[in-house]
């Protein structure tokens, strides 16, 4: 799959992910504009944060050089080249508490 092969979804259509028993979020990792665009119910429960709070976060704010490089890789591979990334394990720190999760990253156009 490559650029322009993906359908475009309306944000309202992403609510179908609320029926899943695992966390799903959609984020943009565009340099200078890294942010959450959507989080399903399970994701907000896991993170202990409201959607409004998650959507207001700047994912680059306070990020280490290593995290910024990782975001750049996700941006290039997933958002620009529209590649599906293999499963990977990440430790996230919602509310300052470590949470290790297995992730999948797939391109989506919203």
Shape: globular
Portion in strands: 15-25%
Distance between the termini: 16 Å
Enumerate the spans where pLDDT stays under 50 for 5 or more consecutive residues: none
What is the number of strand segments?
4
What Rg, in angstroms, do the CA atoms define?
A: 14 Å
- Could you give a short account of the major beta sheet? 2 strands, antiparallel
Helix count, per DSSP? Answer: 3
In terms of quaternary structure, the protein is single chain
Secondary-structure-based class equals alpha+beta
Enumerate the strands of the largest sheet in spatial order, edge to edge or round the barrel.
1-2
User: What is the mean pLDDT?
Assistant: 92
**Element order, helices and strands?**
EEHHHEE
| Helix content percent band | 25-40%
Q: Can you put this structure into words, describing what you see?
A:
It is a single chain. By secondary structure, the protein is α+β, with helices and mostly antiparallel strands. It contains 3 helices and 4 strands. The strands form 2 sheets. The protein has a two-stranded antiparallel ribbon. It is globular, with a radius of gyration of 14 Å.
